[in-house]
Amino acid sequence: MVFGNLGMDSGTGVAFTRDPSSGARGVYGDYLQNAQGEDVVAGIRNTLALTELERLDKASYDQLMDIMTTLENHYRDLCDIEFTIERGKLWMLQTRVGKRTAAAAFTVACQLVDEGLIDMDEALQRVTGAQLANLMFPRFDRDAEKELLTTGMNASPGAAVGAVVFDSPTAVRRAKAGEKVLLVRRETNPDDLDGMIAAEGVLTSRGGRTSHAAVVARGMGKTAVCGAEELEVDVKARKLTDSRGREVSEGDVLSIDGTNGEVYLGEVPVVASPVMAYFEGSTGLAENDDLVAAVDRIMRHADAARRLRVRVNADTGEDCTTARTFGAEGVGLCRTEHMFLGERRELVETLVLAETQDEREKALAALLPLQIEDFTAIYRAMEGLPVTIRLLDPPLHEFLPDLTDLSVEVAVARERGELTEEKEELLASVRRLHEENPMLGLRGVRLGIAVPGLYAMQVRAITRAAAAVAAEGVAVLPEIMVPLVGTVQELQAVAAEIADVVAEPESLVDGRSVEHQIGTMIELPRAALVAAQIAEIAQFFSFGTNDLTQTTWGFSRDDVESSFFSDYLETGIFGVSPFESLDTEGVGELVEIASWRGREVRHDLKLGICGEHGGDPDSVHFFHRAGLDYVSCSPFRIPVARLEAGRAATASGDAG
Amino acid sequence: MVFGNLGMDSGTGVAFTRDPSSGARGVYGDYLQNAQGEDVVAGIRNTLALTELERLDKASYDQLMDIMTTLENHYRDLCDIEFTIERGKLWMLQTRVGKRTAAAAFTVACQLVDEGLIDMDEALQRVTGAQLANLMFPRFDRDAEKELLTTGMNASPGAAVGAVVFDSPTAVRRAKAGEKVLLVRRETNPDDLDGMIAAEGVLTSRGGRTSHAAVVARGMGKTAVCGAEELEVDVKARKLTDSRGREVSEGDVLSIDGTNGEVYLGEVPVVASPVMAYFEGSTGLAENDDLVAAVDRIMRHADAARRLRVRVNADTGEDCTTARTFGAEGVGLCRTEHMFLGERRELVETLVLAETQDEREKALAALLPLQIEDFTAIYRAMEGLPVTIRLLDPPLHEFLPDLTDLSVEVAVARERGELTEEKEELLASVRRLHEENPMLGLRGVRLGIAVPGLYAMQVRAITRAAAAVAAEGVAVLPEIMVPLVGTVQELQAVAAEIADVVAEPESLVDGRSVEHQIGTMIELPRAALVAAQIAEIAQFFSFGTNDLTQTTWGFSRDDVESSFFSDYLETGIFGVSPFESLDTEGVGELVEIASWRGREVRHDLKLGICGEHGGDPDSVHFFHRAGLDYVSCSPFRIPVARLEAGRAATASGDAG
User: Fold this and answer.
1) For residue A30, what is the enclosing H or E element?
2) Listed residues B253, B287, B304: the one ending a domain
C-alpha cells in the first residue's frame, strides 16, 4: 500500500500517453496533491492538469514521462495510467491500453505507424467501421456553451435538436407544420412509430440499447438516446423533470447526442463532420486536419488491401455521382420501383388496372422513354463501372391507394350520396389486387411473368439507353437482375424475353448487341438450395440478405422490428438484430450453400450482396470469408464497407 | 394387312380380359362383322357384345379365349386387345395392359393374387392413393337415368349438384339463403373466390387441370369440372348453351362429376361410397362387396408393410373418434386456435386487448377450464395413443375484427353521429395490432413469449387434463409442440416455462409429473438449418410443410394459389403445385437436412410431418425415404396415407 495523502509532497493522478479525445501527442491527465486514488474521481477538490506536476515535482514528472514512453513501446498503443507519489517517490498503480474516441483511434493509429511501433496493417486493425461511421455524423459544436441536462444510453448515433413533444400525434402534427421536434417518451411502443418517423430524434427514460425505441431508431437511422433514467417523463402533464427538479415542457428545445448519450438544454449548434466533407470530395482537408489525414491514410491502405469491391445501392444519376465520390466501384442495386413514383404513379396505376393488352401496352409505351432517361443518367454517372439494375420487384398494389383508406373514403362518400362509379370501380380493383401478405405475394419475377410486357419494357429501356450512351463513347456495363427467383424455370422464362429484346435493332450498337449480363437475386431459401440449377442461366448472384433474412426466419422487418424484437434482444434470445448484422448460422449458411453450388457450375459466377448488411462491419467480414466479389450498400455506408473490407482482408491474411 | 371387311365371316373387335369398369372376371368387349378396326370406334353400326362371337364363330372365339389367358399369364394383368377375323381366321392386331377404373384396379389386383399371378406386394403396387381417394367420394348413382350435357376435364373429384349461378355475389347470396348452387364461369379469377367457397362445385368452359378454377378447387377440396369447351357461357344473359343449342339458365339444376368430368342436366341422385362406409367402420361390407373386400385386403397388407405411422390432424374429441376408425395411430396436430373461436372469441378478444397483467390473467383464468375440457375429450378418444398439441400459433389479431371492415364501420358511424368511444378505442387497438404481413409477424412461439401467461395456461390445461384422465386409468401420452421456432433460445424459454407448470401440484399423478414430451414444429428454413441445436431441447420434430413451403419459396398459399399459380402450372414453371405435392428439391432438402442434423444429436428424435402433404401420395413416398416416423393428415386422407406408406415400404424393399 502506498499513500498519496501523506502531505503536499504526495499525491495521486491519472495520465494518458496521448490525448484520448483527439489523439494528439502530449501529456494529458490530472493530478491531485495530498490525495488517494478515488479522490481524483470523486471530485472532492479540483484537480491540476498533469503538466503542473513538472513544476511541483520535476523528478517524479520526468520519471513518469520515461515510464510512459516505455509503456507505449511495450504495448505499442495509447496507455492510461494510475499513479501515486508518496513523499516524492513515484509508484505506478496500474496501466492498460486506453479507451479513446473514434477520432483518437484514427490519429493515434497513424502516429504509431510514423513512430515505427506498428505497420499499416496493424493500424487498420486498430480502427473500426463503427468508429468511422460515428465520425461521419454531424456533431454538436465542441466549443459551444452547453448545459447538460442528463446522460442516457447512446442508442442510435447523430446529433438532433428539436422542440420536445410527448406523443406521436403531436409529433406528426407539429412536424407537418414545419417544426423540428424531439419525441420524448418513457418508452416507445408500436403506436409511436409515426411520431418517431416525424421527429428529428427520440429520447426515452426507460430501456437500453435493445429497447423498442433503440431498435426502431437504429433501423430508421434516427438519432436516439434511451434510458435517461434521471428524467421523470410525465406525458399527461406534458413535461419532464430531472433529478434536480429542472422542468422541460412541451415545445421547449432540447439537443440530444446519440453518439455519447448526452442531453442538453436548449439548442446546441451542430457542426458538419470534416470526415464527411472529405468523403464528399472536398479537397485540401487532409493537409490541414490531422484526423482527416489519418482517415485518408487508413482508407487508402484499406482500399489497397481489400479483396471485396464496394458498390452502391442507388437509383438516380445524382446518387450515383455522390456515391462515386464515396468510392463506389459500381452500382450493386438500382431499384426501378423508385422510378415509378411521383408523377409517374398515375401511369403505373393505369398499367395495374389495365383490363386489355392494348391499355397495358399504352401505359408501358408511355413509361419507356422515361425509363430510358433514368438509365441514361445513371450510365453516364457510372461511366466504365458496372450497373446492376433490378427489374420491378414490389407488389403492384403498392402503386394503388391503400385498401382501408379507400374503403373508408367510399363508405363516407356513399353515406353522403357523393359516391362516383369511378371510385367504386377503383375500390373493386384495389380489393381484387389486395393481398393478405404482400411480402409473400405477386411480386418480383412473378410480376414479370404475370404482367406481359412489363419486364420487356424495362429491358428495352436498359439496352436502348446503353446503346445510346455507348454511342457517345461512354463505356456502359449493364447487369440485368431478376428479383425473387425461386426456381430456374422462372429465370429461363425471363432470360428468353431479355434475349429477344436485346436483339431488337434499337438496342444494337454497330449491329451488335450491347455488352450485358443477366443475373438474379438470391433472396429466397429455395433459390440458395437450387443455386446449381440457377447458375446454369445466371451470370451473377446478388444476395438480397434483407429478404433472405425475412424468409429464412419467417418474419417481416416492418412488422417485427417494432413489435417483439426488443423483447428478444432484452431477454437474450437475440444477441443482435439479424437485420442489423447478418445471422451467419442461418442466413449465412444459405449464402455459403448458394455460393458453393453456384460456383461449382459456373466458376466465374460473380457474387455480391445488396442488402443493408453490405454496410455492416461484422457482416462485411462474413462476406469476405464467404468469398463474395462485392458488397453493395447505401452511399453513406460505402466508406465503412471499404474500411471493413480492408480489415477483413488484412485480418485473414489474404489482402489484395 | 388383314381385312375384317371381306364378308360376314370377317369382322373386327376389341376385348378386355376382365371388366375394366368393375374388374369382374368374364368376357368383355365389342365385335362388328364385316368391318375394319376404326369402324368399331366410329360407331357406324351398332356393335355386338363379344359374347355373341361364340355363336357366330366358335373356333375363333375359343382361340381368342385361349390367347386371352396366355396374355394374362404373360402380362400378369388385365389386358385389352384389338383383333380382326379375316374369313374365319383370327389375327391379333395389338394388346396392352388395359386401362381400368379405380374400383377395377383394386378388385383385379386381388383376383390376380388369388390366381397366383402376383403376390400381395405386387398387388399393392397395382393400386394408388389417388384411386383410393376417388373411391371414397360419394358418386352419382350408376343406375340412375342421366342426361349427359357435356364432358370437361376432371379437375377436382367428387359429385356435386346445384342450381346454376353465373357470378360470385349471386352464389354467395343464394347459398346463404340455403340453396345449393354450382358456380359456372368461362374461367375464374381471384374475384370468384367467395363464390367458389359458397358453391357445391365449379364448372368452367375454359382452362384445364391447371387453370385457376382447378387449382383453387383442389385446394379447397371442392368438386370441379373445367374446360367444358362445348359450352358457351354467357354471364350477362345468365345462361349457358351447348353445341346442340340446349340452354341452361340461372337457377336450373346441373350435376357435375369431378372424377370423370361429366356434366348432367338436372339432379342426378348421389350414392354414398361403400368404401367410405367401410373406412367409417361399417361392418360386414367386406363379405358382401367385392370392391370393399379388395380394399380391405390391400389395406391390411399396406398396414403390415408400412414403416410410417399415420396420425391425424384433429382438434376435437369427436374428430379423434372418427379418425381412429380411419386408422389414425395418434394425433399429429391438435390446433388449439380452433378452440378459441365461437363463444370463446370474446374471452380471447379480452386477452388480446388487455392493458394490464391483471386483465390478462382474468381472461386466461376463464379460458383454462374450457381448454381442460377440450383436452380431456381428446385424451379419452385417443386412449393409449400419442396426442401432439400445438400451442397457440396464429397472429392474435385474427381474433379481432378486420381492420378495413371496422374502419368503414367507424367512419360511417362518425358520419351519422353515432360513433361510440368504445368503438373508437377498439379501432385504435385493432390498428395497433394490425400487421402488414401477418404470416411473417407476431405469431407462433413469438406470441407465447410476448403474451405472458398464455402458453403457461395452455400447458396447464394439457397437463391437468392429462393428470385427471390418467387418474381414470386411461393411458395418456401428450406431446407439447411449440410452433414457429427459429432459434433454440425460443424453445429454451418455453421449455423452462413448461417445466414449471408440469411441476405444479394439480399436474401431478401420484406425486409424479405426467409423462409427456416437448417438441417443436420445423416450419422455418432457419429451424431446419440449426436443427442440431434445437434437437438438444426438442424430443420430436414435426415438419409443418405448408409453412415451410411458404417460407422456403417466399409465397403465401392464400395469396398466390388464386393469383399466379395457374399461369405457372400452364407455362410449366411448376409441374405440380408445391402445396399439393412436396417440393422435394427445395423444401424436401430442408426436411432432410433437419432430419440428419437433428438425429445426429438425438438418435431417438421422433420425426413427423403434419402439413396436408401428409396425405399426398408422392409426398408420402418422400417422407418414407427421408426416414420420418409418421405422417399426419386430415381424417379423410388417413386411408390414402396408410396405403401409400405401405406402397413406399414395399417399393423400396424395406417393408415393416
Assistant:
1) strand A25-33
2) B304
A326 and A263 inside one domain = no
C-alpha cell at B259: 372424377
pLDDT in tens, B150-199: 999 998 989 999 999 999 999 999 999 999 999 999 988 878 889 999 99
Q: Please determine, for residue A1, whether its predicted confidence score (pLDDT) is greater than 90.
A: no
B136-151: average pLDDT: 92
Cβ pair A233, A166 in contact under 8 A: yes
Q: Which three cell numbers stand for residue A459?
A: 429491358
Find chain A residues with C-beta within 8 A of B440's C-beta. Answer: 437, 439-440, 550, 554-556, 559-560
**How would residue B218 be classed by pLDDT, with cut points 50, 70 and 90?**
confident
CATH number at residue A510: 3.20.20.60
Q: Are A94 and A123 in contact (CB under 8 A)?
A: no
Ordered alpha helix ranges (H), B250-356: 274-279, 285-288, 290-305, 317-325, 345-353
Chain A residues whose beta carbon lies within 8 Å of the beta carbon of residue B587? 526
A313 in Cβ contact with A610 (< 8 Å): yes
Give the model confidence (pLDDT) of A541-574 as tens digits: 999 999 999 999 999 988 888 788 888 988 899 9
Assess whether B95 and B108 both reside in one domain: no
Q: What is the DSSP letter of A4?
A: S
Give tens-digit pLDDT for A329-388.
999 999 998 888 878 888 888 888 888 889 999 999 999 999 999 999 999 999 999 999
- pTM for this prediction: 0.90
B371 touches chain A (CB under 8 A): no
Helices (H), B126-211: 129-136, 168-176, 193-198
Asked whether residue A43 carries a pLDDT value surpassing 70, the answer given is no
| B-interface mutation test, from A424, A555, A560, most B Cβ less than 10 A away | A555
Residues A264 and A378 in one domain: no
Q: What is the CA radius of gyration of chain B?
A: 29
Say which DSSP state A573 is in.
Answer: S
CB contact under 8 A, A571 and B493: yes
Closest partner CB to A586 (pick from B437, B442, B530):
B530
Confidence class for position B566, pLDDT limits 50, 70, 90: confident
- Cα nearest neighbour of A191 on chain B: B432
- Count of domains forming chain B: 4
Say yes or no: B255 and B215 in one domain. yes
SS3 A111: helix
Range of the domain at A23: 11-100
What is the SS3 assignment for B176-192?
HCCCCEEEEECCCCHHH
Are A338 and A349 contained in the same domain?
A: yes
Give the span between the Cα atoms of A272 and A279, in whole angstroms. 12
Verify whether the Cβ–Cβ distance A586 to B559 is below 8 Å. no
Contacts of B341 (CB under 8 A, 6+ apart): none
From residue A134, alpha-carbon distances to A139, A273, A324, A618, B361 in Å are 9, 10, 21, 16, 46
Cβ neighbours of B490 in A, within 8 Å = 573
Measured CA to CA, the distance from residue B551 to residue B525 in angstroms comes to: 7
pLDDT of the residue at B43:
65
Q: Please write the tens of the pLDDT for every residue from A26-39.
A: 889 889 999 887 77
The pLDDT tens digits for B352-379 are 888 888 999 999 999 999 999 999 999 9
> If contacts are CB pairs under 8 Å, which of residues 570-629 in chain B contact chain A?
571-574, 583, 585-587, 589-590
Q: How far apart are CA B179 and CA B251, in angstroms?
A: 10
Domain identity same for B173 and B249: yes
Residue A57 lies in a domain: yes
In this prediction, residue B656 carries a pLDDT of 58
Q: Which three cell numbers stand for residue A271?
A: 457542426
Q: Are residues B212 and B297 located together in one domain of the fold?
A: no
Considering just the CA atoms, what is the radius of gyration of chain A in Å? 29
φ/ψ of residue B251, rounded to 5: 100, -25
